[in-house]
Design brief:
With 360 residues, the chain is α+β, with helices and mostly antiparallel strands. Helices cover 37% and strands 22% of the residues. It is built from eleven helices and 14 strands. The strands form three sheets. The chain has a seven-stranded mixed sheet. It has a five-stranded mixed sheet with strand order 1-2-3-4-5. Strand 13 and strand 14 form a beta hairpin. Helix 8 runs antiparallel to helix 10. It starts with a helix and ends in an 11-residue tail after the last strand. The relative contact order is 0.13.
Length: 360
């Protein structure tokens, strides 16, 4: 599902996605929640505003049977009477990690993929696009700041992708596989082992903060400008949570709540104690609704905070953003297969893919 979300957002310009079992897509009928077999994700395309339904299938070897099952899950019939796009993503590990993407178009959405190239420079002037990207990558930000300072590294990627003309973006997409990116290989060869973020940017590169997720074969990363945006929004979220907590505490006796420390923030999460499961579900629903209403009321505040964080990230060093000095690393030399956009990074350890196993 992660690979499907990465491909749909990075290659085809889809906006943030939602798990189909946790919400109802725009324009869908109420019977959506009663259907037993649903697609995995849905989202709205950033340039066409069209609804996309996404099903993700994966395995060591991906066969036709699994893909046919995915196609049936995408066939939601009259539950979505309006125009929508169906995307079936299949990820297979053997012999190499690869994806198969099947797209079903109708006349109203047939052009949505061919014209879906999302201009990286849109983040420079579109506050809503910036907020959407930061929200979609907030878990990545929280994972990076939770890592011990010594385990985060600096990775260099050629920055030419930000300046390619439109025909180049259409040919190569926004996600680049770095093992075949000669510009990035050349940049890394020209950098010394003690190179800093400023050394990378002076050579028209992007200095990405990266870290390996504990217990996995994955490495993630992001740019300074996206990191700064996420940091600013997280700070505003902390303020929001504190305000909601204080409001809840004023309207409920102290004996009715319990305070839980949050691992990633300096505030506490308030939950009711000694309640039934149904009461707890209602509490969570009310809390989530308060958060959505708060964000809607303060939409302009979030836009301004995100833009300030974006600019601060561009102008600051990693030392100023993280209070640490990340050292330069070349993940390819450690056996990682890498992919990157202008602001995000993902790598997987090659040995984890069993590339030498012969497919049946």
């Amino acid at each position: 599902m992660t690979m499907a979300e990465w491909a749909c957002r990075g290659l085809m310009g889809l906006g943030p996605t939602t798990h189909a079992e946790s919400a109802i897509p725009p324009g869908a009928l109420p019977g959506w929640k009663q259907r037993k077999s649903l697609p995995d994700l849905f989202g709205t395309h950033s340039s066409t505003s069209a609804l996309w339904l996404v099903e993700a299938k994966g395995g060591r070897t991906l066969g036709v049977t699994s893909r046919r099952k995915g196609a049936r899950q995408l066939n939601v019939g009259s539950l979505v009477p309006g125009p929508h796009q169906k995307v079936l993503c299949g990820t297979s590990l053997q012999r190499r990690l690869f994806m198969m993407i099947d797209i079903e178009s109708n006349p109203s959405t047939a052009d949505s993929v061919s014209h879906s190239e999302q201009d990286d420079d849109a983040l420079e002037h579109d506050d809503d696009a910036l907020i959407e990207l930061a929200r979609a990558r907030m878990l990545m930000y929280l994972a990076l700041i939770s890592l011990p300072p010594g385990s985060v590294k600096l990775t260099a990627v050629d920055g030419g992708g930000r300046h390619h003309d439109r025909s180049q973006r259409r040919a190569g997409g926004l996600v680049r596989l770095l093992e075949s990116d000669h510009a990035t290989s050349d940049l890394r060869r020209r950098l010394g082992r003690e190179a800093t973020g400023s050394d990378i940017t002076r050579r028209d590169g992007i200095d990405l903060l990266t870290g390996r997720l504990p217990g996995t074969d994955l490495m993630i990363g992001m740019s300074r400008r996206l990191f700064g945006t996420c940091r600013a929004l997280a700070a505003l979220d902390r303020s929001m949570a504190s305000e909601i907590e204080e409001s809840w505490a004023r309207s409920h006796p102290a004996s009715a709540v319990r305070r839980l420390p949050d691992a990633h923030t300096d505030f506490v999460v308030v939950e009711p104690s000694d309640v039934s499961e149904r009461q707890y579900e209602r509490f969570v629903a009310r809390r989530d609704e308060r958060m959505r209403a708060y964000r809607e009321r303060r939409r302009d505040d979030f836009r301004r905070a995100g833009r300030r964080g974006f600019e601060a990230g561009k102008e600051s060093s990693w030392e100023e953003l993280t209070h640490a000095t990340p050292r330069l690393t070349v993940p390819a030399e450690d056996g990682f297969l890498e992919a990157a956009t202008a602001d995000t990074y993902l790598a997987v350890e090659q040995e984890a893919l069993d590339l030498d196993i012969v497919m049946p």
